[in-house]
Write a structure and sequence with these properties.
The chain is α+β, with helices and mostly antiparallel strands. It has a single domain, classed as 2-Layer Sandwich (Alpha-Beta Plaits). 43% of the residues lie in helices and 20% in strands. The chain is built from five helices and four strands, in the order H-H-E-H-E-E-H-E-H. It has a four-stranded antiparallel beta sheet with strand order 2-3-1-4, with helices on both faces. Strand 2 and strand 3 form a beta hairpin. Helix 3 crosses helix 4 (82-99). The radius of gyration is 14 Å and the shape is globular. The N and C termini lie far apart (30 Å).
């Protein structure tokens, strides 16, 4: 059961730093790219938390979700490039739409940050403005 379901709280910020650190280690020590995906819903959107729950159930064991708020979450997809990450997220969104039809289509803004071997350690301050920049999201 997620922390949100237990007490309405969200993930510990230290966990996001750990996830980004793991992505940096994969990139720098193993030459494996990872992609950080910012997913944002509209304020008060009741469907968005359900979409994130679905993502969490559909991701591989090596991937992770960090829940920032009710309307914002970070996905860390290991050992993929940006193109692959976009395909994975698109597939999950489409699967959610097919399995859980509703009168309202989920509104999700997505932003991507690829952690590559060329980057030094990746910080939260470096990633968040990029993955939640609505002008850069699709």
């Amino acid at each position: 059961m997620s922390q949100m379901a237990i007490g309405g709280s969200y993930d510990d910020p230290r966990r996001l730093r750990e996830l980004l650190g793991r992505a940096s280690v994969l990139a720098n020590e193993h030459a494996l790219s990872s992609v950080v995906v910012g997913a944002a819903g509209d304020e008060g959107d009741l469907l968005f938390p359900e979409v994130i729950d679905y993502f969490e159930s559909a991701l591989r064991v090596d991937d992770a979700i960090f829940r920032m708020t009710r309307e914002r979450a970070i996905l860390v997809l290991a050992d993929v490039n940006r193109e692959q990450a976009e395909e994975i997220v698109e597939r999950m969104v489409n699967e959610f739409r097919e399995r859980f039809t509703s009168a309202v289509d989920p509104s999700i803004s997505l932003g991507y940050f690829e952690v590559t071997p060329e980057l030094d350690d990746v910080s939260v301050k470096q990633v968040l403005p990029i993955v939640f920049d609505r002008s850069a999201s699709r």
